[in-house]
Specification:
mainly alpha, globular
């Protein structure tokens, strides 16, 4: 929902050839779960505290991103979803996406992510997601 980067030529060519995209990290390295709180240290044992994982997640650990993610929690609850399920469902609903690679370190995370399978988000909910994330959405393939 935050990182929407793909080269402009890829999607039209993929559609023409009947090829779907396999995307990774639909929960933005765990940021879209809401566990990272604005103004607070990252939870102990989280990806953000791991030397290898922190390089990937650091771009999302800004006050603006984390505050906007907290606003998504209410939308997820309204939809009867966990924040992770909202993010995975949003990703899988993209017509160019055939599959999403979700990273999990515990079995309950796999079960939670699997709960997004088959979920359809209505247009109004998708608009509200875009309204909340707005300026933190990245679409520039040069980034």
């Amino acid at each position: 929902m935050i990182w929407r980067v793909i080269e402009a030529e890829v999607v039209p060519l993929s559609e023409q050839e009947g090829i779907g995209q396999i995307v990774f990290s639909p929960i933005a390295q765990g940021v879209l779960t809401g566990k990272y709180q604005p103004g607070q240290a990252a939870p102990a044992g989280s990806r953000a505290t791991d030397a290898r994982g922190s390089a990937f997640i650091s771009r999302w650990l800004t006050e603006d991103v984390l505050t906007r993610v907290q606003a998504l929690l209410a939308l997820a609850a309204e939809a009867g979803l966990t924040p992770a399920q909202l993010a995975v469902a949003w990703t899988l609903q993209n017509p160019n996406v055939s599959a999403a690679i979700v990273g999990a370190t515990r079995p309950e995370q796999i079960r939670d992510n699997a709960g997004a399978s088959g979920v359809r988000l209505d247009d109004e909910l998708r608009r509200r997601i875009d309204d909340i994330l707005g300026p933190v959405i990245v679409t520039d393939p040069w980034r």
